[in-house]
Amino acid sequence: MEGQKDYQVVIAGAGPAGALLARELAAAGISVAVYDIRKQGMLGHNWSDAVEKNALSAAGFKLPSIENGRYKGRLVKTDETDDNLFEPHVMQRLQIRSPDLSCTTRSDVDFRYITTDRKALSRMLAEQAAEAGALFFYNHRADRLIGDTDVIFDKIDVKGMRVTNLDNGESFYVAADVVVDATGYTSGLRTGFVGAPAIGTLFEKGDLAYACRTVRRLDMTHAAGDDLIDHYRYGAFKGYFWTHLHHGDVVDVGGGVREEPGRVDPKIVIEEMIADLSLIHI
Ligand SMILES: Cc1cc2nc3c(=O)[nH]c(=O)nc-3n(C[C@H](O)[C@H](O)[C@H](O)COP(=O)(O)OP(=O)(O)OC[C@H]3O[C@@H](n4cnc5c(N)ncnc54)[C@H](O)[C@@H]3O)c2cc1C
Predict the structure, then answer these.
(1) Which residue's CA is the nearest one to ligand 1's atom 53?
(2) The domain at 5-44+121-202 falls in which architecture?
(3) How far apart are CA 19 and CA 274, in angstroms?
(4) What percent of the chain clears pLDDT 70, i.e. is strictly above it?
(5) Which residue ranges make up each domain of the chain?
């Protein structure tokens, strides 16, 4: 199967980085193929993410309009198929917890951000890239880079990558001028290469953070008018905690801590914060 497939660029990973790059390359007339380990329709995450609005508009997305200095539009999605991809949020009170767990509330914060449905965003980016001419192969695992030699990573001339089709177990070589590792945090290709530095040797331990997320129900009767149901707290338990309300009464609850000595399990951050917010139910 060697040399059977040839592209100018081959991308491992159809997340936002891989799909957006594929879209731009294909639109510029460059032949590009994207391989993702997930099955078709399974891209993205089950939650909404806060995304920098300048990044979204730079990527060509139309954002909610602003009227009288405020985003126009609904705050909360009504169901899974709601086309309101970008939800504008305005936070006017922000709870800030110090590491000693004392809590201050800042009023008049007027902090604006946008959350986006990561499944819908991924689907849209992949569709746009495919329309521009990029080829997508799902359920394909990028296994390793192929170079002209197996010497240390920065001295090889990369020729392509080896891929396994998880439908039938077939493994093949994809030749390309450029190989892009867009496999996200796992950085699957780079770290798997013979002689390549493992991710842990490039990052200091304290640069890593652990985050947990859970989806809960919110008591909407009592939550009405409470702007703390959709909020972000920094400094809690030497980490951070957030809630995003989406899909009716579904609330996305998360907590994260940096990987440093003495930091607690992020699950504990979530448990304690939920105990603090009695409106959130299992
Ligand atoms: C709990 C949590 C909360 C987050 N919250 C936010 C947030 O609020 N805002 C924000 O901007 N970011 C957030 N992020 C970070 C977010 O994941 C990144 O911003 C974004 O997903 C990075 O995009 P990416 O394309 O680089 O990688 P990913 O989205 O991780 O995409 C990588 C793709 O590569 C595929 N893949 C992996 N390995 C292989 C392989 N071997 N072969 C083929 N395909 C492979 C995966 O299936 C996936 O589709 C959060 C992350 C986590 C874990």
Answers:
(1) 211
(2) 3-Layer(bba) Sandwich (3.50)
(3) 36
(4) 66
(5) 5-44+121-202, 205-281
